[in-house]
Amino acid sequence: MLARLDTRIELASDRDDFVQARQLALSALDLARQMLEADTRNSRIDWLGEPWAQVQQPALHADGRIQLMITDASADAALNGMIGQAAGGDGGGGTQAARYPSVPVPTPLRVPVNINTAPAIILPAILPGATPAQARAIAEQLRTEPAPTLRALAERLPEGVELPHPEQVGVTSDTFLAEAVVQYRVATVTLQALLVRESDSVRVLALRQH
Known about the structure:
alpha+beta
């Protein structure tokens, strides 16, 4: 009898830990939203040297360990397509992934890819004429010296490498993936939020729990 009672108490405690962990994860995602809103007010471009692009460990609770990561979603094939559908994009003029079977390019490109945050593997697909080696060099430079405009980027490109249509690339980001991983006592919760920046606010487009 006492053993069964002890088990029920333990299960209730574990459930409470899970609820608390999830609440902390939601608070961390709200912090991500606030960081992106602040970035909108303080910066006219988006790049990997900004605070939002760094891994955060907010101290939201003494008993909780929290890790918050924000990434630019524009260069993610699956997310880019999802964003475009939710935003009502028609996908006109998109790049077909069949042309680049090993590169995660959205099919079609519905949201402009931020050239300052795009990984090297995707650059040959969006910069006509770029070789993999040139793409790595461009991505490495943009990591520390972001392009303020597409015109400024064009001046840096090697001979033979061209900019794509302006509707396909840019130097800012409006779509982000925020992931909060929380450990609270015996519970671990991972929440992901797809965030869309609109004017001076950021809204949650989708939320997923692992």
